[in-house]
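User: quick one, fold this
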Amino acid sequence: MASINTNMGALIALQNLNNTNSQLSTVQKRISTGLKVADARDNGGAFAIAQKLRGEVAGFNAVQGSLSRVQSTVDVASAAGTAVSDLLIELKEKALASSDTSLDAASRTALNEDFVALRDQIDTIVSNASFNGTNLINNSTASIAALANSDGSSVITVLDENLSLGGSIVTIADTASINTVTRAAAAVTAITTSINNVGASLARLGTKSKALEIQSTFVTKLSDATTAGIGNLVDADLAKESANLQALQVKQQLGVQALSIANSAPSLVLGFFR
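Assistant:
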């Protein structure tokens, strides 16, 4: 039946053209964003999962920053502790030399002056071993903690190692001297104990620094794996989308032509009235 009121051919052609245009819009969006799931309209479930994973990646970035800061603080403390240990060795040499009963007064005085200068240098090193305002070897901070996971439920704690003079680790007093044989002998004993104690402190700091490094490497790998997982969920295959784009562009042109042909059909009705 020929009709000018209802053109089914044009309606069908228009439906197909609209469908093609919708698909073309989707492909163009994927190409422009690089994502097959750019928002919740594209795929609500995948988008929700991707957003959750993006939150975890953001958490990993914060963890990395925390681990780096604490590791730097520990490394500064460790470097200062090594310097203190080296100074203690020099102090022991001076004290042992001064404990020699055959030493003359002038030599003993010179050794004592060197000893006092080295002793005070320990205090200078300890008081300046700070990173980002935190000092782990002067008893100003009980401990420092680094985030270990993305939700903050786990931390790596590093305890303070008090290397100040006259403390439980460096037992030599901040007023110690070697201007007599007796004082020199006492200083040798205290310094020997201090060297052993500082060695143990450095071992603890080194262990924590290694633990922080291992955790940082793990978090980096975990972040990379999570990022790759997000990509698998939402990234578009641009080679495939490029092929789809060309195919849909051809379909669009054909659809326009088909609609044009369908729209011209009612004009054939005029032939019946000639």
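User: anything notable?
Assistant: The chain has two domains: 8-34+236-273, 44-233.
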